[in-house]
Design a protein that fits this description.
The complex is a heterodimer of chains A (294) and B (319). With 294 residues, chain A is mostly helical. Chain A has one domain: Orthogonal Bundle (MetI-like fold). With 319 residues, chain B is mainly alpha-helical. The longest helix of chain B has 38 residues. Classes of the chains: A mainly alpha (294), B mainly alpha (319).
């Protein structure tokens, strides 16, 4: 089965696949470009927050509370007299940072564990998969909320809580990919050529199986952004007075009958952010695995 | 028929290590609390007496293995400990809250199907045409909206502007409950619908291309009748397993939604327990929810097998 000819054919097929990937330049990929523009604009807003925000986001002004939108405060002021637009702009820093960084730990941890389980199989695989089953029994928000409670509030706890819940998906995805990949001729060939398991996993299987994990990671970023906002809304996220979109929605809900903008606009910016990331993910998945798209 | 259900004992056996793991994880929650759990739970209300009393109540003065054994035997007898806030058994608090959350979740599932089936049908009939693109845009936006924010927006529009539904609460009678649960269920249904639509759309496209649908068409069937009699019944089968997986997701989502609409379900119980540091209640709700998800997973496999004669879990290993 794994004759040199077959191995060679495998290599050639792989090279062909690589070539077809490069046929369409990235800038003609509509989703990717749309995603880059939206996410780029939001990141720029976060970076430039000190310059473009008209007011200090946490400076209270108790003589000027709960103002309707006006020329001096485009989105009005909240119950402490803080400028809502400035808080929205500064909020991008916290929400984008946590949303994007939170995928890193589960991505690395889950991929490594899933990769080892899929590659070596046997008891290691059995144990890892049972642990995955156990973690899957806990709904995302139940687990995240309980863990944030246990670990205490703060950014570090949010990273850890999200990591503890989401590593299982990466483990499952990478395990499945590795199980398929390890039977491929290029892997068998590499082993026959005398390479160690570690080298085969890192140099040959890794690059080929990670694209699915990266594609999933993009949708995971959307989920993490939701988690941060939701924790903020539940009062379990980033502590006040730091500007954060979820807690802004919570604050705005109190005055929704008179100042509907204050709960609505932060939610809209969350929608725009997740759309941008989703586009980016779609575009990336076109680039990374064109053969899987219909 | 019955022989196809012969996978059930095996499936139950498979669930045992998972249940075991779930209890282990929930048990160790208490030990993840930094420092002395009793002190961490009591916080600034801690006095020497209360710490000792709580340590005894939580069984923290015994060896770890003994504690876990006690924990398991208590669970087996339905004893989840006593709430620190209300001084009543956690199990009775959970039983009180479960009907609210379950009604919400099932109502949401029904509404989700009512949204998902027509939209996926419209999308699948002519893929890549304007209607399909519109539905796909809806799924993309639907996925990007924070659930609680959708709830607030529904309140803003249906309750405050149109004055059609209450802004929150649960009501007194069964009819009340249905009325009060409509907006929260719609919120969860909107959150669920993108997943449902995606699954239903692709399975409907598959079914529409099948030979038996071509046969039905050649016999003059068409339109809604064709869809109802031949397409939907087959297209919905893969979605059943997706719905099973998502029931857990819905329970998680309802925690957040119950806060938006002030519903007295498991979510409110959990969040209140979190803010009053009522650890036994947090533990009890978490355990209950996780075990519920495991049971639903098994039930989903059973329903799936009964619905689709082609599925046979007994004969081959899954995956």
């Amino acid at each position: 089965m794994s004759t040199p000819t077959a191995i060679l054919a495998g290599f050639q097929a792989k090279r062909r696949a690589t070539r077809s990937r490069t046929l369409k330049p990235w800038y003609k990929n509509g989703s990717l470009v749309a995603g880059m523009i939206i996410v780029g604009a939001l990141v720029l807003m976060a970076i430039l927050a000190p310059i473009i925000a008209p007011y200090d986001p946490i400076q209270q002004n108790l003589t000027n509370t709960l103002q309707a939108p006006s020329t001096s405060h485009l989105l009005g002021t909240d119950k402490y007299g803080r400028d809502v637009l400035s808080r929205l702009i500064w909020g991008a820093r916290v929400n984008l940072r946590i949303g994007f960084l939170a995928v890193l730990i589960p991505f690395v941890f889950g991929s490594i564990l899933g990769g080892l389980a899929g590659y070596f199989g046997g008891w290691l695989d059995a144990i890892v998969m049972r642990v995955v089953d156990v973690f899957f029994a806990f709904p995302f928000y139940v687990m995240v909320i309980v863990l944030v409670f246990i670990l205490g509030s703060g950014e570090a706890s949010i990273y850890l809580a999200i990591a503890a819940v989401s590593w299982v998906s990466y483990a499952k995805i990478v395990r499945g990919e590795v199980i398929v990949a390890k039977k491929q001729d290029y892997v068998v060939g590499a082993r026959l050529g005398g390479m160690s398991h570690g080298r085969v996993l890192v140099r040959h299987i890794g690059p080929n199986v990670l694209s699915q994990a990266i594609i999933y990671g993009m949708s995971d970023i959307v989920m993490d952004i939701m988690a941060v906002v939701t924790l903020g809304y539940l009062g379990l996220g980033i502590a006040p007075p730091t500007a954060e979109w979820g807690s802004m929605i919570l604050d705005g809900q109190e005055f929704i009958t008179t100042l509907w903008q204050q709960a609505t606009i932060p939610g809209l910016i969350v929608v725009v952010t997740s759309l941008g990331v989703s586009f980016l993910g779609d575009g990336l998945s076109d680039l990374l695995s064109p053969d899987r798209r219909k | 028929m019955l022989h196809r259900l012969s996978f059930i004992p095996g499936r139950l056996l498979q669930a045992i290590p998972v249940v075991f793991g779930v209890t282990l994880l929930v048990f160790f929650m208490a030990h993840l609390l930094p420092g002395d759990p009793a002190l961490a739970i009591l916080g600034d209300k801690a006095t020497e007496d209360r710490i000792v009393a709580l340590r005894t109540q939580l069984g923290l003065d015994k060896p770890l293995l003994v504690q876990y054994g006690l924990f398991l035997s208590n669970i087996a007898r339905g004893n989840l400990g006593d709430s620190l806030t209300y001084q009543v058994p956690v199990s009775s608090l959970v039983l009180e809250a479960v009907p609210v959350t379950l009604s919400l979740v099932f109502f949401a599932l029904i509404l989700g199907l009512l949204i998902g089936i027509p939209l996926s049908g419209i999308a699948a009939v002519k893929p890549n045409r304007p209607a399909d693109l519109g539905v796909r845009a809806y799924t993309l936006v639907g996925q990007g909206m924070p659930q609680f924010w959708v709830g607030i927006m529904l309140i803003l529009f249906f309750s405050l502007k149109l004055r059609l539904f209450p802004v929150g609460g649960y009501g007194q009678t069964a009819a009340d409950h249905l009325y009060y649960l409509f907006l929260p269920a719609l919120t969860l249904a909107i959150a669920l619908s993108p997943t449902l639509i995606r699954s239903l759309r692709s399975s409907t496209i598959n079914v529409l291309g099948s030979e038996y649908v071509a046969t039905a068409r050649s016999k003059g069937s068409g339109g809604v009748a064709l869809f109802r009699q031949h397409v939907l019944r087959n297209a919905i089968i893969p979605t059943v397993s997706i719905m099973g997986v998502n029931l857990g997701y819905l329970v998680g989502g309802s925690i957040v939604i119950e806060k938006v609409f002030a519903l007295p379900g498991l979510g409110s119980l959990m969040l209140n327990a979190i803010f009053s540091r009522d650890f036994p209640t947090i533990q009890g709700v978490t355990l209950f929810v996780a075990l519920f998800v495991v049971v639903v997973g098994i039930l989903t496999d059973v329903v799936y097998t009964l619905l689709d004669p082609r599925v046979n879990f007994s004969s081959k290993e899954r995956e």
